[in-house]
Write the structure tokens for this entry.
Amino acid sequence: MSEANEISVASKLSDATAANSVYAATDPCAIGGLSVAVGQMDVIAGNPQANLATMRAMVAQAKEAGADLIVFPEMCVGGYFLADKWTDESFVDYLESLNDQVRAMSDSIGIIFGNVVRSYRGTAPKGTDGRRARYNAALFAQDGQWVPRQHDDAVAGVYLKSLLPNYRMFDDDRYFVSSLEDAQYHTELAFEDAYCSPFLFMVRGTTYRIGLEICEDLWSGDYAFDVTGHYQRQGCDLVVNISASPWTLGKDNGRAKRVAEHVAALGSIPPLLYVNNVGMQNNGKNVLSFDGGSALYGSDGRILHQCPDTFTESCEVVNWVEGASSTSAASCYENDSEKILDALVHTLRRFDQQIFPFKPKWIIGLSGGIDSSITACLLRLALSDPSRIIGYNLATRYNSDITKANAYNLAQALGITLKNGSIEAVVGATEDVLRTYGYADEQISGLAQENIQARLRGHMLSTFAGVEGGVIMNNGNKIEVALGYATLYGDAIGAISPLGDLTKVQLFDLARAINRRLGTEAVPENLIPEETDEGFSWETMPSAELKDAQVDPMKWFYHDWLIRKLQDYPGYGIEKIMRQYLKDKLASTPVAKWIPFYGLDDPEAFINDLEWVLRQLRISVFKRIQMPPIITISRGSFGFDFRENQAIYEQTPEYCELKEAILQRG
Amino acid sequence: MSEANEISVASKLSDATAANSVYAATDPCAIGGLSVAVGQMDVIAGNPQANLATMRAMVAQAKEAGADLIVFPEMCVGGYFLADKWTDESFVDYLESLNDQVRAMSDSIGIIFGNVVRSYRGTAPKGTDGRRARYNAALFAQDGQWVPRQHDDAVAGVYLKSLLPNYRMFDDDRYFVSSLEDAQYHTELAFEDAYCSPFLFMVRGTTYRIGLEICEDLWSGDYAFDVTGHYQRQGCDLVVNISASPWTLGKDNGRAKRVAEHVAALGSIPPLLYVNNVGMQNNGKNVLSFDGGSALYGSDGRILHQCPDTFTESCEVVNWVEGASSTSAASCYENDSEKILDALVHTLRRFDQQIFPFKPKWIIGLSGGIDSSITACLLRLALSDPSRIIGYNLATRYNSDITKANAYNLAQALGITLKNGSIEAVVGATEDVLRTYGYADEQISGLAQENIQARLRGHMLSTFAGVEGGVIMNNGNKIEVALGYATLYGDAIGAISPLGDLTKVQLFDLARAINRRLGTEAVPENLIPEETDEGFSWETMPSAELKDAQVDPMKWFYHDWLIRKLQDYPGYGIEKIMRQYLKDKLASTPVAKWIPFYGLDDPEAFINDLEWVLRQLRISVFKRIQMPPIITISRGSFGFDFRENQAIYEQTPEYCELKEAILQRG
């Protein structure tokens, strides 16, 4: 199955040609028969020559299809998430120097693309880091020339990003000077004319007035300046938004909402073409997925043309038919799980290709539990060569026959190697060494004993990786990451954590999506609970299998909901949840059923559990600081998206009052 | 020795009273006999009640000394480095609510202090993260009232930070709305009058016009607006700059340079009082030290009064005598090593007190090498109770008698427990387990074999920590961190890395400073090289002791210099170093001697070494992502100061040309 899904970096251009050939507009109208191609390319961070090759191939395709204009995404030349590589002056100068190479591709076609610009208006204001300014720019060339602007004071061919996001994984103000900041050095100029003047794009004797904007410029609700509104007031024929927008759950609807807000505020907008890239980029602690999903929005905010949001490259000429869609947020997916599955598979594949081009073995601990079963399936879907995956069952006396059989069946289903053995010898030797250091046997028990086993699993996987020249897969999920239910240097290790941003409940749906995709019960159904009216039935409860009859201490479904609320929803703080509990309003949330199921209708039990969760969240920050990069799919993933430090934060007086009020109900 | 140095959190207020009593101004003049106290307090991030208690005590001291005004640092109520805790709406509202409590302390005294403000001008613009705006504010109260401003449009009692730093460890734009951004929502107001109007502070019938600014506002060279210059033009009697400025090497001179630039540009400046906090704060990956070093600069930029820059609290009334100093950058230290030593000891102590209030044991691997010897000394200086430190010598057959004896002598000198034993049993068991998984003995060798030992040391330290309820000390230095010369989950583990931002050469000086401080040869001299005219002589070369006759592959002194240049000096890229080499200009750098010493005057050897360093820097990013927090002392520490991602960045054409040119010289 993975053969068909697999796109190697080397072959992706020819694949794109075959699978996503440019087709001509079916009914050119709207802005007068302008034929616009969308270059929804796979941008490889740090590898401009590969990106230029992609652009060159797509420009050729677009020309062949008779397009007048091709649009590429934000920062498509060098990538967007470069972290502090942006402070490498030589590398950034090199990126800028490539703008002329793209301009040179524009004979008989217009090209809009994103890249860094440093030379601007002849002056060189400094960034606030003391280095020469870097601008996040949209560039526009045609017939080897930079496209002119409507106003004399505006710079031909170059639009500077106006609104710079600085939240979640975004650090634009760290790296770029915005148009608004640059204007502070040019108070002699009228800002809108000098920086946001429409581009005058002439095709077959007609001049089209096109407004360029970049990504966040569309999300202007929380800024003082509205780029899109300005273009509407200017009467632009078309607004082009080039983006490098990592996909996370809810982002599609978020974008549709922004467009709808503009339509509501302005009455109508110029047709708006949103062009996003695909690919994998990372910021160190988070690995980000780009879904594409480029789209043309009509003046009423409904989608006229939708490019695939399937994380795959495409190069299409957009369809201008008004009323072609009745929706403002189209997607190729029917549910979140299918999209999450594609995000994980594509991102894992690209991570493997770009970070480990030497094609190492992937070393994975296969306990037979649900999490490791899923990561094994993801690897199998991501890699074309199953011989690169080696599963290891690392048994101790506490491992059950069911999970061992699960691991065996999974490896069979995926056609990967499973190596069986026992780590008892090294557990025993650890106890021997402890004795040589003067520790008595009775000191070696409980949690310390469990952590020894977990850590030795990590040690053995690392040892296998050393011998095989391999890299290690992390199997932890978001609930474990949040609560610190993982042993540092034990099961918390690895090169990447594909599940670290998914709750256990999201994993159940993902497991079903995987089994559908594979057409077989690769992830055993006995690992997935059946929801019932009152709760759930579960054949094999999650367990770390580090002691007899151990079952994970999580309150499944309830903790999944709680942690998602706290992490993913800005402003949904603990005090709000406590107020809802106090007013019996949790009954109208998805969590209603689980409150009585876990006995949390007892106020003391509710508070005890809440404080346990808060304490675990706090004391496991130090583990997360040392955990592998997480593939981000939520609105608030751990790592360098939601950024934590170590501190014992005082509880607010509001928290203390609510706690008191809840306990008094008991 | 550590008893005297130790300040427990509980007792620090009374200590401050005893040791740093407020003294009266000796010659009040300049701005007419205004008596100003500097509240150089230890700010504890996330613990406003502790901070308010400190402020209350210092206000009482200042009143007793007859001060008219006391100035506290930026964000002294809740701390400055709170990471994404700033997005916790309830907590931030709680912090803001405390402003009235500070105002209430101001009967018969003026109080300037820093805290977050959200309600401003009755409007509530949003931050760009969609949450209600947060402002980084300086507040000014007197006699229970907010102090009025010179201009009608300005808000009484509140100045908003204008220049927000977004480089290194700073993320101000992520968390705060600047005065300049807020002004975009109030275009009806004249910015300077509405936001930067002097405060009218009336004392004994005289009105003093005081300009407030916050930290980065002074470092305006890379911004379009100059707050200090504005106050000079307004003819303010005094400028007060409240800061939360983490100390790093060169920062003192940097600040003096900023003041001098203002004096040069403006002719003279109003007297400028810089008030900084002391303490430890962290951003997750970096632990930051605040040295205090508050100072009063005269109109010529020279220092009139200097508070201790010794990382210790003080509450002093400033001395206005003009010409009291001939310097613009005073310090209590004669050299960097002494200051680095204090930074590390105070920061380690506060980290232990604030993050681990349950007083755990500190588990430290004592190999007898220089790095672990130094960290043991730092712990001993930081903790009042030596019984909280347990050293473990984790020997294998490869460990020398010299290093074992070193470890023994060190433990004796420090009065800490040293436990001896051998990890051979667990190394052997690992090999046994490998065989059960089907690996042959000959596959278990070389680097894999070395990593097994290093990782099992990490495992055993973790096991000891589990049994002792302890936390682990990391012993790695910056060169190892940079080059990835550490085994992940082995010697790269721990709760904190105190040496992770010091090169090996900096460690030599630090070791000498420690021995001076302790008055004994705690760090054995045999571990410190003697520099000679041609190179160095070294009794015991650094070694990981993982195989026979192993010596670390670093080119000491040369790699130290190279890595410091690349990390600490913006714009000092690899191409610049190559150009210097090509033009024989490295001879005029501190590294001149080491080029021939290591045979790098051979161009091929130089390039081979350079490419090895660059490759190691790149491939070890994944290790640094999973390493413990590092105490920052340099201008570019790894972690969340210099932020890295994983990518294979193309070499620039300039790099390739320079490489070719160098090789052609050979």
Summary: The CA atoms of residues 72 and 113 of chain B lie 5 Å apart. DSSP finds 23 helices and 22 strands in chain B. Residues 1-30 of chain B have pLDDT under 50 and may be disordered.
